Amino acid sequence: MMNEENLRYAEFSLEYGTQAKALFEGKTTEITDAEARRQIESIMILGTANLTPEKQTRYNNLAGWMQANYSTAMAVMPDGRELPLDPDLTALMATSRDYLELKNAWKGWYEAAGRPIKDSYEEFVALSNEASKADGFNDTGEYWRSWYEEVDLEGVTEQLWIDLKPLYEELHAFVRRKLYDVYGPNYINLKGPIPAHLLGNMWAQQWGNVYDLVEPYPGKAGVDATPGMLDQGYDALKMFEVSEEFFTSLGLLNMTQEFWNFSMITKPADRDVVCHASAWDFYNQKDFRIKMCTVVNMEDLITVHHEMGHIQYFQQYAHQPIPFRGGANPGFHEAVGDTLALSVSTPKHLLEINLLDSVETDTEADINYLMSQAMDKIAFLPFGYMIDKWRWRVFDGATDKANYQSTWDDLRLQYQGIVPPVERDNTLDFDPGAKFHIPANTPYIRYFVSFVIQFQFYEAMCLEAGHQGELYKCDFYNSKEAGAKLAAMLQMGSSKPWPEAMQAIVGSNKMSTASLRRYFQPLTDWLHAQNVANGETVGWPEDTWRPMGFASPDGAPAFLEQYNSTSEVKLFEAVDAEWNYNVNINDQTQAASEAAGIALSNFQAEQAVGAKLFEPSEITDTNLRRQVEKISVVGEGALSDEDLAALSKVNGDMQTAYSTATYNGKPLDPDLTATMASSRNYNELRDTWKGWRDASGKLMREDFKTYVDLQNEVAVLNGFDDMGAFWRAAYETPNIEQQFEAVWQEMLPLYEQLHAFVRRRLYQQYGDKVINLKGPIPAHLLGNMWAQDWLNVYNLVEPYAGYTRPDATAGLQQQGWTAEKMFHEADDFFGNMGLIRAPQAFWDKTMFTKPTDRDVVCHASAWDFYNRQDFRIKMCTEINQQDFVTIHHELGHIQYYLQYMDQPTVFRDGANPGFHEAVGDTLALSVGTLDHLYKLDLIGKPDENPQSDINYLMSVALDKIAFIPFGYLMDKWRWDVFSGRSAKTNLNQAWWDYRVKYQGVTPPLSRTEEDFDPGAKFHIPNNVPYIRYFVSVVVQFQFYEALCGASGHVGDLYKCDFNGSTEAGKMFGDMLKLGSSVTWEDALEKMTGTREMSSASLVKYFQPLLDFLTEQNTKNNEVIGWPDYSWEPPTNTIQNEDGTVSLDNSGNMTKSSSMVLLLVAIQAVLKWAFE
C-alpha cells in the first residue's frame, strides 16, 4: 500500500513537473515574481518521479525493506535473548556499566540492523543518483546540498566545525578520563579514541546517559525532571500537554484537534512500528501528527518539545503554497523545537513548572548544568556533521560498497574520536545502516546546522524577552515578544532564501557558532583548566589504538603463532646484549644493552597492543587465553619513547654505579665480601660496611627517585596503582600480601629464637659495649654485607664445638677443586636424578670465574637466551661451600629453562617468581646434607649423634632462617616507596625502620637521608623484585619434602638426600616442564598435593633446632625479640686483642667514626673562643 501511494505521488509530481519543465526550463530567470520563480523551480525538481515506474517500484521496495529491517531488527545476546532497539537496547545502553554487556548489545544491534541492508543500499544509491541526475544534479548529495542555497555548503559547515572542535575536544578529553576511571586502561586509552559503546547511546551521538560518570561536582542538585515527572504521575499525554502549554505561553499556536486524535504518542502493543520520534505534515492545513514511543523521562520531554517544534513550523507556514511548506533550510526545521527546549531545560523553568523542588545557584551547580547540556549538544556536533559527509562520498562515488564500512569508521574516528568496540569486516558490516536516518534516507546535516543555529535563535529570543546575565540561564517562557519574533520567521516557510529568514530572527544572515560558544564559555574555561591540571592529552593522537576485545577470539591462534616465532629472536637479541654488558662493563656495552632493552620493550609493547585486542574471557581454550593475558601486559613499553629512554638510562647508571663501586680500591667481590665473611675486627667490619655504602648506594639516591617515578608511570599505564601492585600481580593471587604476612608470622618464632641465640654468641665475642642483649644486632657483625644470611659467623655460634662441622670449604680447597669442577659436580647431581644435563653451549659460554682484564657484574645469575640451545651462568666463583651451594641454585634456574624450553615463550618462566628461585635451592638442601658431602669426600664421616645434627641444622638455619625477614622486608620497603606510603624524603629512615622491625638489626653508625643504604644491595639498582626469594625459602621446603617422599626417604626430613632418585627427578621435571602455563597453585598442587604456601615443611625440617634453641634461650634467660629497638651501637670503639670491643672515652676515636664527632668538637672550640 505504501508503495502504491508513493507511486501515485510520483505520478502527480511527474505530471506537474513535466508541465513546468516544458513551460519554463531555461526560462526561470525571466519570471520577475521572486516567489513564483521559487515555486516553479521547486516544482521542476521531480526527484524519484524521474524514474520509470518499474524503477520507482524497486526504489520504494528497497526503501521499505530497509526501514522494515531497521524497525524489526533484534540484537541477539550471548545468553540467547533477542532485544529490540526500543525500549530494551536503548535502556541497556543508557544504564549498563558492564563493558562486555554493552559491547555485546552494540555488536548485536549493528549486525542485525546494518548488515542485512548493505547490498540493498548500494542499489538504492544508484537509483537515487539516477533520479537526481535527471534533475540536473551530479548526484543525490549535490541535490540535498542545494536545499541550503549555499554555493559551498561543505566549506561553510567545515568552518563551523573548525570553530567548535576545540570545545568538543576539551569535552572528549574530560569524559575520556572519567571513563578511564570506571573501565581502566584495557578499555580506555588516555591518548586515544573512546570505544563507541561506552557513551550511553547506541550511536555515541549524545552522551547524557553517562552524565552520572562525569558529573563535575557530585552531590550538587542535578537538573533532572524525571523524578518530579514520576512523582506527579506524568504520562505521555501529560508530557505533550505540558509541551503545548509552553508554545502557547509564547503566543504560538495550539495543536489541532486532528493532532490529538491521530498522533501515536506511545508504542502500541499489537503491532510493529517505527519508534523513532518524528513529526508529520499531512498537507491539509489541519492534520499534523507526531509518532513517538514516549517514555516518561526528561529526555523524552525534551524530544516532545523538539517534535512539537516541527508541528508548530508546519502550522505557521500552512498558508504558504505547497512548495514553500518547508523550513527556510532543513536545519531550521530541526532547530525550532530545540530552541524552545533550551529554555524548557533551564533549572529556572523546571522549577517554575514544579518539576524541580529547588535550584542551587552557584558556580558548581552551573557547571553541572552546562555539562549536562554539553553531553547532549556538544557531544552531538561531530556525529551530526559526519553522517552526511559519509553519504555525500557514497553518492558521488568516492566511497564504493567495498569501503562503506572503513570510510564510516575513518570519519567517526576523525571527527568524533571514537572507535568500534569490535573489529569491523569491510565485506560484511554496514554500521551506517544501524542508524535510522540511513535506511530512512533522511538527510542529516540538518541536525548539525540545527545545533548551531538554535543557539542563534535562542540568544535572539532571550534578548527579545529582556533577559540579562549569563545566556545559559535564560528562560523566555511566557514572553509573547519572543514568540512573535519566532512566529514571524516560521511563517515564511521556505518562501525566502534562508539568510533572509535568519535575518528576520537574529539580525544576521550568516550561520555562526558565536552564540553557542558564548552559551558554553564558562564550561569551556572549566574543562580547559581541569584538563591542564590533570595533564590530559586533548585530542586522540594514538588513533591506531583499539580496546581489549576488539579482535575476534578466532584470530588468537594465528596471533600467538606469529608472536612465539618472532619473540624468540627479539628476546635473544636483548639477552645477548645484556650478557655482553654484564661480562664486560663499559660505555659501549652499556649503550648496546640499553638500545637492545628499548627495542625489546618496544616489541613487547607492540605485541601487547595486539594481545589486548582480544578479550580473554571470549577465548575458550584456557592455554591460548593464558598466553594472550600474559602477552597483553605491556610493561615498560607503555612509556613514551622519551620516558623509556630515561628509564633505561637511569637503570644503566644505577647498575654501573653498583658494579664498579670499590672501597679502598677493592671491589665487592671477592674482596669486600671476604672481609665481611672472615674478619672479626669490629672497626674493620664497620669501616668496610660504611665504605661500600658510600661508594655504591649513596651515589644513586637521586637516580632511584627518578626510577620510582618512571616505574610507577609504567605501572599506571598497565592498569596498576603503582609498581608494587604490578609486581605482586605476577603471583596471580588477590590476597598475596596477606599470605606473605601469614607465612612470616608462622616462621617468626623460629627466627626470634635464632636471633636471640646468635645475639648471645656475638655478645660473648664482642662484649657488652656493642651488643645489647635486649636490642637489635649491629648489622655489620653477621658475616655478610647485608646481614641477609649469617653462615659466615657459624664458627662464632656453633652449638657443639668438636663435633662434625658441615662446612665443605676446607675439603674443596684442600682437594684442589676448581670452579669448573664444582659446576660439573652440580650438573652430575641433576643428571643422576634423570633431569636434563647442561648442554655443551653452557660449558662453552658460561663465565665461571671473575676475569682480570675487565669489570663485570659478579652477582651470580643464570641466563636463558630463548633459542632453546644457549643457557649460561655468570659467576665470580670462589672455592667455598657457599658458592658450591650457589652453583646448585643457579643450575636450578638452568634446569627450569631446559625443562620448559618447548613451551611458548610467554610460558618460559617460573609458575611464580619464587618457584624459579626455589628449584636449585631444593636440590641444594639435599646437596648440603652431611651424608651427601661425605659421599663427595668433602667432609669427614658424619658422627651419628644429635650434636652433629644440631650443628648441621644450625648451619642451614644461618642461611635459610636468617634470610627470611630480609627476603620479606626488601620488597615491603619498595612497595611502600612505590605506593607513596614512604616518602622520597624518608627513604633511608623507612629502610632502617623495617630492618629493625623485621630483622632486628641496626646500622653500626648513624645514617641520614644523604645515605641510601638500600642501593648497596644488587637487586635495588638492578630492578629485581625480591619477594621471590622469601617465597623460595618457603616453597623449597615443600618441594624438598615432596621429593624426599618420592625417593622413599624415611626418618628425619633434614637427613634426606634424594641424589640419584629418578622417581624424585621425574616428579620435579614434570612440574618444571609446566613453566608458567598454569598458576603457581596448580603447579604446587601437582608436586606437593596442596595449593597453599605453608611453612609446615620448613618448621618440620628445623623442629630439632627450634627445640634446642628454645631450651638454650630459656636456660640463659634470653630476651626473645628486641624490645630495646631504638638502641644504637656506640662509635667510639676500640678493638681489643681478645676480640672484644671497649670504648674510647678519651676522644681518640677510630678514623671512620671520628668525623661524626669532629664537628661537635669544632663547635665546642668555637663556642669557647667567643666566650
TrEMBL record:
Carbohydrate attachment residues: N261
Biological process terms in GO annotation: proteolysis
Residues annotated to bind chloride: Y148, R446
One Gene Ontology term, aspect cellular component: plasma membrane
Keyword Protease: yes
Coiled coil (residue ranges): none
Residues binding Zn(2+) 1, per UniProt: H306, H310, E334
The protein, known as: Angiotensin-converting enzyme
Originating species: Phallusia mammillata
